[in-house]
């Protein structure tokens, strides 16, 4: 795969010059994603857990482009660090065992943008690092910050056939701030195939077709009103999944 190295490196510089929200909006615009419909918002301050579906490769960028909080962090795949230091400051990295379909794009992406191959970790190392990212996410929320998570894990899964991973439950169990609120986010219109938008401009013009993207933010609700944090992580994840699905029927 041949990525648009100039555009991605330009975005890294723009995050430093104008900030993450403006830079991600600019990147989406440069990719041709100009029709974004937003309904609702997140609280301007206070401890917040943002739970979103994950239908496509633009989802993390969408959240950054639509959430103005300077204390907003996100739990996401470790290779988002290619977007530079400003993104890395907000990233709580999640690692995975790379299958062939992951290697096909992650290796050329990292090599072309920062000249380094992704680090391959053992399963034990992956679990340890992911637990630490979840712990850090809970600490950030306890300290009054905002943190987002995609509880389905990998992207492109429909709500009616995916089961949330227990990570969101383990995160919730470590949140001790009683003022923590939860906002559910529903994204529509993104796809995993949108990865082609990051490729060489000639390839993008041939295969990428921009479409309307919608992002909906629910009303914030107290975490303690939604789940019993004494339950195990898997039970909490199942309860939150049902609440999420009921919210967007």
From TrEMBL:
Gene Ontology MF annotations: acyltransferase activity
- The segment(s) forming the Phospholipid/glycerol acyltransferase domain are 39-178
Out of the domains of life, which is the source? Bacteria
InterPro entries from the entry? Plipid/glycerol_acylTrfase (IPR002123)
Q: Offer one Pfam family short name for this entry.
A: Acyltransferase
What name appears for this protein in its UniProt entry?
A: Phospholipid/glycerol acyltransferase domain-containing protein
């Amino acid at each position: 795969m041949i990525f648009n190295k100039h555009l991605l490196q330009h975005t890294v510089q723009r995050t430093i010059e104008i900030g993450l929200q403006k830079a991600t909006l600019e990147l989406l615009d440069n990719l041709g994603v100009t029709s974004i419909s937003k309904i609702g918002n997140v609280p301007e301050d206070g401890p917040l857990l943002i739970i979103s579906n994950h239908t496509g490769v633009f989802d993390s960028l969408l959240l950054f482009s639509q959430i103005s909080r300077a204390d907003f962090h996100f739990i996401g795949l470790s290779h988002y660090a290619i977007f530079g230091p400003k993104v890395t400051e907000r990233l709580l990295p999640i690692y995975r065992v790379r299958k062939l379909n992951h290697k096909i794009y992650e290796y050329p992406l990292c090599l072309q943008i920062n000249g380094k191959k992704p680090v391959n970790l053992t399963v034990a190392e992956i679990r340890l690092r992911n637990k630490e990212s979840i712990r850090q996410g809970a600490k950030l929320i306890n300290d009054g910050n905002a943190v987002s998570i995609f509880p389905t894990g990998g992207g492109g899964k429909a709500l009616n056939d995916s089961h949330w991973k227990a990570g969101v439950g383990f995160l919730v169990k470590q949140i001790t701030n009683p003022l923590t609120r939860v906002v559910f986010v529903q994204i529509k219109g993104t796809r995993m195939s949108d990865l082609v938008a990051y490729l060489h401009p000639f390839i993008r013009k041939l295969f990428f077709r921009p479409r309307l993207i919608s992002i909906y933010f629910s009303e914030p609700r107290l975490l303690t009103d939604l789940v019993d944090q004494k339950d195990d992580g898997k039970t909490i994840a199942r309860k939150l999944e049902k609440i999420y699905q009921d919210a967007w029927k």
